[in-house]
Design brief:
The complex is a heterotrimer.
Chain A lengths: L15 H18 L39 E3 L5 E4 L9 H13 L6 E4 L17 H28 L7 E3 L3 E3 L5 E3 H4 L33 H5 L15 E6 L7 E4 L2 H5 L4 E7 L2 E6 L2 H14 L1 E3 L10 H7 L3 E8 L8 E9 L11 E7 L2 E6 L4 H12 L6 E5 L11 H14 L5 E4 L2 H7 L6 E9 L5 E10 L50 E7 L15 H18 L4 H7 L4 H14 L11 E9 L6 E11 L4 E12 L6 H21 L28 E7 L16 H14 L19
Parallel strand pairs in A: 2-3, 7-17, 15-16, 19-20, 23-24
Antiparallel strand pairs in A: 1-2, 4-5, 5-6, 7-10, 8-11, 9-10, 12-20, 13-18, 14-15, 14-17, 18-19, 21-22, 22-23
Chain B lengths: L2 H24 L17 H14 L1 H5 L12 E4 L2 E4 L16 H10 L14 H4 L4 H12 L12 E2 L8 H9 L14 H11 L5 H4 L17 E3 L2 E3 L14 H10 L12 H8 L4 H12 L24 H10 L1 H4 L4 H4 L10 H4 L4 H9 L21 H16 L7 H13 L1
Antiparallel strand pairs in B: 1-2, 2-3, 4-5
Chain C lengths: L1 E5 L2 E5 L7 H8 L18 E4 L2 E4 L5 H4 L4 E2 L12 H8 L9 H14 L5 H7 L10 H14 L23
Antiparallel strand pairs in C: 1-2, 3-4, 3-5
Classes of the chains: A alpha+beta, B mainly alpha, C alpha+beta.
């Protein structure tokens, strides 16, 4: 029987005993079971997973914050296996990858695993599914938990059979077999075995050389439903008695709703309620089209008092440079070096970027007898619950947030906001589930964007062409305005008693926000990196896939090419000259080889090649990429002919899944770099649809992309979701420089490509 | 007159004129070809001027075909006399103009004569380019010679006999080619007006589309800028710009020409769209000059006061089906409170010429075709409804829109027009 | 009362005639394939086939459909028994978040019905109205190419339904 669940609309009832332990019990129990373990310093990452439980610090992955084995794995009396993860399937394929991991270590078929994803009622709190942490932190926890559960099952079975555990083996179908032919299934083996115990620091993992499932391109379990109209998304949920709702958004930040004709809209067919609370306005109806018509009618009569003053777009970077900054010294190195023979300087700029999810955000909420259930595609169900509790004046224990996949979010988009809408409207119509769907224009216009940034780099070469000094500065707003409090939920800002967003906090290194990937991986003798963190946010911003890595790697890798040219060196050789990390060198050499990178190539008119490399956060996956493209000077059109990339993500769980992520990341970040910028003027955000925020279409997709994988069996998982977004834009920028002789440092690139003879 | 008869009369007239001209004008001498294309100029100012003129002249649009390689030719131009394919004007020696001297190039622009002496069809608007100065022609020449040569042989024309006999064009030239620069204006004019006239009458060749054509395919002499019909679209007259719902101003017309949208009018669509795209690459001062000149073509005082824009009032029973269609298909963008209007600041339906003119042709084309994407770049996109709505439904929704927004007398030939235009498009 | 013929089955629906087909399919026929992506005819997530042509169901009023047959991805096949095109998408793992995929499949299906054996260039051009944000384009094209190459080429044009209109681009809806 196929036990996969593609969506989890409250199929499992909440186990209150379990929840209690998840929330509070683990600390007490773990201290007793793991004596003497030192507490680790608080680990702060973008995904804000809870800190290590005292005494559990040395456990692998997120076992450190959720050490109980039965938080992760449950074996029922009938042998059914359920694996719990606090991470969510955002469309990257981790549902399948985690099934592979669990299946491998439990030594059962993947079809035997039921995976339950982020649910405040059922799963560990693993913070946000973000920052490429899923496989690294949750996958690692599952890997180890499953291995340890397997060993416990074998020990339990051995005891029942009166044998040594080493004499038993697990055969296909989850059968524990003794040499004399006796067997026990998992259900029988788990009887009397209490998995409610802490994990151990070390696990007996399956030898990677004997992997049967990890490392195989197992087809994703959720794709068949997605190609045939199965109910796969929160948008597909249909609950009995469900109402359809729409919010009416302010035309600009902080606008006040002066008046609206709610009375006549309430009389429209099917309209159940118009919700107005201060400047917060929404409508619920029996039918979705009725809700849309009602929304349009409310919008037409609404009168707003607008006060937003947005920066002048033409001078946004000057504006940002002048904002007050909190200085963050990211890092430095000092060492002996030959004297500087040449010094180069460059400044780069990046505009605000939208997430651009194809499916605008959606949530379903149901308030019943003082308890609220929210089905949401938000990246963090636990922080969301906290924010909703504060906004509604409810206890978190009375709110359950269940992750159901939405469209790809690529960071902090409107998913949390729409959950707040659903909660507010559900509160107004208790007893009836409410489905709120944001409109395209609302998603584009009101969501938080990836911040505009400026980077400035100055570096010196010695006479032999080595970089001897590197000074790098970043100006950026926060890349993380996630749900630290109710005020971070935008709808709450418009209530008659509004909530105020908590002040922005930079994400410390080694993860970083605007300074993510700002430390050069290269072995420069001297460097200094300074982050001018700008707390004032004239335009709403938050995490956008890769955070600062996109801009920092674009800047660093573009400038590396400029330095290489000044040194008279080949760009690939120049990078190798400054890299010691063998895994970095491996991806660079593999890409150059597979691409056919030729330092002596003849430059053809209007055609160019470009190279780039990065290790995500200097901690995670390595990727090198080479691009060949053509620029049409008269039109500025770019045709990307071919792309070759090599990636090292540590131990690969699903090679096809990694390839899919890298190909996708290449195309996505190529689109960011070439075409994208949020439009606005001094009064309103003007991006509201795909014509005002065009992204790459089929006409401009590269003709060929080849991704080569370097597998490191047994090595830690490094995550693949954001590996491509850093290096791709620089490879494109470098290829454009090669094709046109012009170095472009201001994103987006395409509007600046049309040849101009003006002085 | 049926098109067959029209062609017969045309053929007869041209044969007669051609016979008169044959001896003296039909055969022009060849100019010796260059062995290789001249080296690309490094005079950036000259190249900048040439690039500017190429954008003002919209050369790339006609001279670029499906391959997408700029100026390599191959694009079809439908004329009442058959299809003509634009030539390769990249500096490829064998298939382009790489072997042309400046003298040959200038002769083509001024007289419509190719390097080897054969006559060019006036689908290439040399009666306008003849107005260009020597300096400008030289700049354009330098710019084209600096393009990437593309080997792309010419596509043979498909013209109706006897019009495929080029020497007949000599007769046409006798009748309709007024060679050389424009005469000085009748009265004193501003620099902007003069520049605008030079650009509009010369490289811009606006009248080629915006003046009705006579039976011989020439601009009707007595009706300059009185409008036309190109590629199935009505080309609006430019001599009545003050009769728009809101009279055109220099600012509005400049914005329209440079960005493709005027906030008090509408978006450039159909054949005008690429023109606006290229004018957007020209200096703003040039475009303002063109706007200044074009506005002067309309009489001083408005013929009628502008009707005030008002909310749709039509909800009578007859228009109900159209309203339902409009609510589903159109209102999401075109309603007054729709985001396209409030956030996008795109023009209101009631202001544009499309719904306000006597002919429903352009409205029908917009509904059938929309305004397509231009690759991955920003565009004033409108989806097409040709596959969504039946003829009857297009009639209904346009009848509703006309009543609700234009507040003009109903189009009384809508069903026939929709069917005819759909049939035209499918050919 | 509006009558719609969807995937070969006739339905009488008591719905507002101005309702776009997308909402009738999703909310009144419980079909999940066609998705709301923009409601503006710009992204193609709502693409279905009406009378052989790919259209934006978000902008198609139910009152305009009439007796023209509507096909959605559910009509091609099921997760357990996918159609050849759907199977190609599964084989190529041509999905990341998957939200755009049903629309992609329907737009591609309309092309393959009209032009079996369509080339990769034709496929890329045909798919232009549909957006993918995850960057799954290479696999989408690869799946359609695979399905295209597996189809028997039609002998004559007369037994293939023609897409009305001069060029494919003009009629992409």
């Amino acid at each position: 029987m196929n036990r996969h669940r593609d969506t989890a609309p409250a199929a499992e009832a909440v186990d209150h005993g379990r929840r209690r332990f998840l929330a509070t019990g683990s600390l007490t129990v773990s201290f007793a079971l793991v004596p003497g373990a030192a507490a680790l310093a608080q680990r702060q990452t973008e995904d804000a997973a809870p800190t290590a439980a005292a005494g559990a610090a040395r456990l692998p992955g997120n076992l450190s914050s959720t050490p109980l084995l039965d938080s992760w794995i449950r074996i029922d009396a009938d042998g059914a296996i359920t694996v719990y993860t606090g991470k969510a399937e955002l469309g990257t394929g981790i549902r399948t990858a985690f099934i592979q991991i669990a299946a491998e270590e439990l030594q059962v078929a993947p079809a035997a695993i039921s995976l339950v994803t982020a649910d405040t009622g059922l799963t560990p709190n693993e913070g946000y599914t973000a920052g490429s942490h899923s496989t690294a932190d949750s996958g690692t926890a599952i890997l180890n938990a499953a291995a340890q559960v397997r060993e416990l099952l074998l020990a339990s079975a051995a005891q029942k059979l009166g044998l040594e555990a080493g004499a038993l083996e697990i055969r296909d179908g989850g059968v524990i077999a003794a040499p004399d032919g006796r067997t026990l299934d998992f259900g029988q083996a788990v009887e009397g075995l209490d998995l409610h115990r802490n994990a151990q620091p070390a696990s007996r993992l399956v030898d990677p050389r004997r992997h049967k499932v990890i490392g195989t391109p197992m087809p994703r379990v959720d794709i068949p439903a997605k190609v045939a109209g199965g109910a796969s998304y929160v948008q597909d949920m249909r609950l009995p008695g469900m109402l359809h709702a729409r919010a009416v958004r302010a035309p600009s930040y902080g606008a006040r709703l002066v008046s609206v004709d709610a009375a006549s809209v309430e009389k429209l067919p099917g309209v159940v309620k118009v919700v107005r609370d201060g400047s917060y306005l929404a409508v619920a109806a029996e039918d979705e089209w009725q809700a849309i018509r009602a929304m349009r009618a409310l919008t037409a009569s609404a009168v707003w008092e607008e006060t937003a003053v947005l920066p002048t777009p033409d001078t946004i970077y000057d504006t940002l440079l002048k904002l007050p900054a909190r200085e963050i010294h990211v890092g430095e190195r000092h060492g002996p070096a030959d004297p500087a023979a040449r010094t180069l300087h460059a400044r780069f700029t990046k505009p605000y970027l939208a997430h651009g999810s194809i499916g605008p955000s959606c949530a379903v909420a149901h308030m019943e007898e003082g308890k609220l259930t929210v089905w949401t595609h938000a990246q963090g169900v636990f922080p969301l619950r906290g924010g909703l509790a504060e906004m509604l004046g409810m206890k978190p224990a009375d709110i359950r947030c269940i992750h159901v996949p939405g469209a790809g979010c690529y960071g902090h988009n409107a998913a949390d906001d729409v959950a707040a809408d659903a909660a507010l409207i559900a509160r107004a119509v208790p007893g009836r589930p409410v489905r709120v769907q944001w409109m395209r224009e609302q998603e584009h216009n009101c969501e938080p964007y990836g911040p505009a940034m400026i980077t400035d780099v100055k570096a010196s070469l010695d006479a032999s062409g080595r970089v001897v000094d590197w000074q790098y500065e970043i100006w950026s707003n926060s890349h993380n305005q996630r749900i630290d409090n109710a005020g971070r939920l935008m709808p709450s800002n418009y209530l008659s008693t509004p909530f105020t967003p908590a002040p922005p906090k930079p994400i410390p290194m080694p993860e970083g926000g605007g300074d993510r990937n700002s430390l050069p991986l290269y072995n420069f003798a001297n460097f200094n990196v300074q982050h001018h963190f700008l707390p004032d946010m004239p335009i709403r911003v938050s995490a956008h896939r890769g955070l600062g890595a996109f801009m920092n790697v674009f800047s660093i890798e573009s400038f590396m090419d400029e330095l290489a040219e000044a040194a008279g060196a080949d760009p690939v050789e120049f990078r190798l000259r400054h890299l010691d990390d063998p895994r970095a060198r491996d991806v660079i050499e593999l890409t150059a080889k597979e691409f056919g990178w030729d330092p002596r190539r003849r430059r053809a008119p209007n055609r160019g090649v470009g190279f780039s490399f990065a290790q995500y956060k200097n901690l995670m996956s390595y990727m090198a990429i080479a691009v060949e493209l053509e620029v049409v000077p008269e039109t500025g059109d770019v045709h990307i002919e071919r792309v070759v990339a090599s990636v090292d993500t540590g131990q690969i769980v699903n090679p096809d899944g990694v390839r899919n992520q890298i190909e996708g990341g290449i195309i996505q970040s190529a689109s960011w770099a070439l075409y994208e910028q949020v439009r606005y003027d001094e009064t309103r955000i003007r991006t509201y649809d795909w014509s005002t925020y065009p992204i790459m279409r089929f006409s401009d997709v590269p003709l060929k992309i080849d991704v080569h994988l370097i597998d490191r069996p047994g090595a830690p998982f490094l995550g693949a979701g954001e590996a491509a977004q850093g290096p791709t834009p620089a490879a494109i920028g470098n290829a454009i420089a090669d094709a046109t002789g012009r170095r472009l440092r201001d994103l987006p690139l395409a509007p600046r490509l049309r040849e101009s003879y003006e002085a | 007159m049926s098109s067959k008869k029209k062609i017969a009369w045309t053929a007869a007239a041209v044969v007669i004129a051609g016979a008169i001209a044959a001896c003296t004008y039909a055969w022009q001498p060849a100019i010796a070809p260059l062995a290789q294309a001249p080296a690309a100029s490094d005079d950036r100012a000259l190249l900048a001027m040439g690039a500017r003129l190429a954008e003002l002249g919209d050369c790339m649009h006609c001279h670029t075909g499906k391959s997408g390689k700029p100026y390599a030719g191959g694009a079809p131009l439908a004329t009442p006399f058959g299809t003509i394919y634009a030539t390769n004007i990249t500096p490829d020696v064998e298939t382009g103009i790489g072997g042309w001297t400046l003298e040959a190039f200038a002769r083509a622009l001024r007289k419509g004569v190719s390097r080897d002496g054969h006559l060019l069809y006036p689908a290439f608007p040399y009666p306008h380019f003849t107005r260009m100065s020597d300096e400008d022609i030289a700049a354009l020449y330098a710019y084209l010679m600096a393009r990437t040569p593309v080997h792309a042989p010419a596509v043979p024309n498909e013209l109706v006999f006897p019009l495929n006999f080029r020497p007949l064009v000599a007769g046409w030239n006798l009748l309709f080619l007024d060679e050389g620069p424009l005469p000085p204006p009748a009265q004193q004019q501003s620099d902007a007006w003069l520049r605008g006239r030079y650009l509009a009458e010369g490289p811009g060749h606006c009248a080629s589309c915006h003046t009705p054509m006579n039976a011989l395919g020439a601009e009707k002499r007595g009706e300059p800028y009185a409008g036309g019909l190109i590629d199935g679209w009505d080309v609006p007259p430019l001599n009545a710009l003050n009769q728009a719902r809101k009279p055109w101003t220099v600012d509005q017309l400049s914005a329209y020409l440079r960005t493709g949208v005027a906030s008090e009018h509408s978006a450039a669509s159909g054949p005008m769209r690429p023109v606006a795209h290229h004018l957007g690459n020209a200096p703003e001062s040039d475009v303002r000059a063109i706007a200044t000149y074009l506005l002067s073509l309309s009489p001083a005082a408005p013929a009628q006061p502008a009707a005030p824009a008002s909310a749709p009032a039509a909800d009578t029973q007859i228009l109900k089906p159209g309203k339902a269609l409009f609510d589903a298909s159109c209102a999401g963008c075109h309603a007054a409170a729709a985001p396209m209007r409030t956030l996008g600041e795109r023009p209101a339906l009631e202001l544009g010429s499309t719904l306000n003119t006597d002919s429903p042709r352009n409205a029908i084309q917009m509904v059938l075709n929309g305004n397509p994407w231009a690759g991955s770049s920003a565009a004033h996109y409108m989806p097409p409804f040709g596959s969504v709505l039946t003829d009857r439904q297009i009639v209904d929704v346009l009848a509703y829109a006309r009543a609700a927004y234009a507040q003009r007398p109903a189009w009384n030939d809508l069903p026939a027009a929709v069917a005819a235009i759909r049939k035209e498009n499918s050919k | 009362m509006v009558t719609l013929t969807v995937n070969g089955v006739k339905h009488d629906l008591d719905i507002d005639p101005s309702m776009p087909l997308l909402y009738a399919l999703r909310n009144h026929l419980q079909l999940n394939g066609a998705k709301y992506g923009c409601g503006l005819g710009q992204c193609g997530a709502c693409t279905v086939i009406i009378d052989g042509k790919p259209v934006f169901s978000c902008l198609t009023p139910v009152s305009s459909v009439g007796s023209r047959p509507v096909r959605t991805v559910e009509g091609l096949g099921t997760p357990q028994q996918p159609s050849p095109l759907q199977q190609a998408f599964i084989d190529k793992q041509a999905a990341q978040c998957g939200y755009c995929i049903a629309g992609m499949i329907m737009r591609a299906q309309a092309l393959l019905d009209e032009r079996p054996g369509a080339t990769e260039a034709e496929i890329r051009e045909h798919m232009q109205p549909n957006l993918c944000r995850c960057g799954t384009h290479m696999r989408i094209v690869s799946a359609i190419v695979a399905a295209s190459q597996a189809l028997p080429k039609r002998q004559a044009d007369n037994d293939a339904p023609a897409l009305a209109g001069a060029s494919r681009q003009e009629n992409q809806a």
